[in-house]
């Protein structure tokens, strides 16, 4: 089969479409014929080795972790999935920018609703489940206020919508060009991070500070700086690492990798199929243009998800 491959830790422009053996389903695994795959920032870090301290990889590495497609083989012990089933899921380092991939039934794999196409389905798993886990980890509730930093990225677009669905007041970072779109997703206010200080502008909107800061951009001491936007005793949640002490009683919550609960992915897919969750496709590429897709994802500001379709 053909796949987008890194042969070692390497620059992104050295990725190639190469021939690899078609995977077989082991016990408790299914093989999926890929129809679409989406990119995430971690994919870039795995290729270059920027994340090798936390996520060492074996080579050749197939790029991509989000997939939508059709089951073509079910291994021993698999129940609930059979050849012909339409699915979406997160396959980790099994790789998804390929003609076939291997997935493990469980919380990270779900049946795809009939009215959810493969391109939009592939854009959901990692970003959508990360957003769910972030809001769950910090215990966001209705009536609270939340600042989402990185609101126009893959995770951020879901975080804004899911926080709004919880009846929280959402303040989101966005450029002037994206402000109307983000408000259409449920943000009550936006802060232009290119033109103003995010913390200062947030405190103008909520003088005592927001209850929760969801930061999808900063890490390390950068999180201590944005924690000033939280009220004393508030919470900050991030998928990146940061200080244990943020001052003023602000509680830090860090999730290094998302751990979804059973039904999370099914719920996201159902919401998307019913129109209750908007899935933004920022750019769509053919399989033959996969190397360019990675380059553009790394180098351009793209609102929403980058998806590669596989014939």
Protein described:
It is a single chain. The chain has 311 residues and is an alpha/beta fold. The protein folds into two domains: 2-124 and 279-309, Medium-chain alcohol dehydrogenases, catalytic domain (Quinone Oxidoreductase, Chain A, domain 1, Alpha-Beta Complex), CATH 3.90.180.10; 130-254, Quinone Oxidoreductase, Chain A, domain 1 (Alpha-Beta Complex). It has nine helices and 16 strands. The strands form three sheets. Strands 3, 5, 6, 7, 8, 15 and 16 form a seven-stranded mixed sheet that branches. The chain has a six-stranded parallel sheet with strand order 11-10-9-12-13-14, with helices on both faces. Helix 3 (125-138) crosses helix 4 (154-165). The termini are close together.
């Amino acid at each position: 089969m053909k796949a987008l491959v890194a042969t070692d830790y390497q620059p992104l422009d050295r990725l190639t479409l190469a021939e690899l053996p078609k995977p077989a389903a082991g016990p408790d695994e299914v093989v999926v014929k890929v129809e679409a795959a989406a990119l995430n920032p971690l994919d870039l870090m795995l290729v270059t080795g920027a994340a090798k301290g936390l996520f060492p990889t074996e080579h050749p590495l197939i790029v991509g972790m989000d997939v939508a497609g059709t089951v073509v083989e079910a291994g021993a012990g698999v129940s609930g999935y059979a050849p012909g089933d339409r699915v979406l899921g997160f396959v980790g380092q099994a790789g998804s920018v390929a003609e076939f991939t291997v997935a493990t039934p469980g919380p990270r794999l779900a049946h795809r609703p009939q009215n959810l196409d493969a391109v939009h389905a592939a854009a959901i798993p990692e970003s959508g489940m990360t957003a769910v886990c972030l809001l769950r980890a910090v215990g966001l509730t209705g009536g609270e206020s939340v600042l989402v930093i990185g609101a126009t990225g893959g995770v951020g677009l879901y975080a804004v919508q899911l926080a709004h669905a919880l009846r929280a007041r959402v303040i989101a970072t966005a450029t002037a060009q994206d402000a109307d779109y983000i408000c259409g997703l449920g943000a009550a206010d936006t802060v232009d991070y290119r033109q103003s200080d995010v913390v200062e502008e947030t405190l103008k909107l909520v003088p005592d500070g927001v209850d929760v800061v969801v930061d999808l951009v900063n890490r390390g001491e950068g999180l201590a700086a944005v924690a000033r936007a939280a009220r004393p005793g508030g919470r900050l949640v991030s998928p990146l690492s940061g200080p244990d002490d943020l001052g003023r009683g602000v509680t830090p919550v860090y999730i290094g990798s998302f751990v979804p609960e059973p039904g999370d992915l099914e719920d996201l897919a159902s919401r998307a199929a019913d129109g209750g969750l908007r899935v933004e496709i920022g750019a769509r590429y053919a399989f033959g243009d996969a190397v360019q897709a990675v380059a553009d994802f790394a180098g351009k500001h793209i609102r929403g998800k980058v998806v590669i379709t596989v014939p």
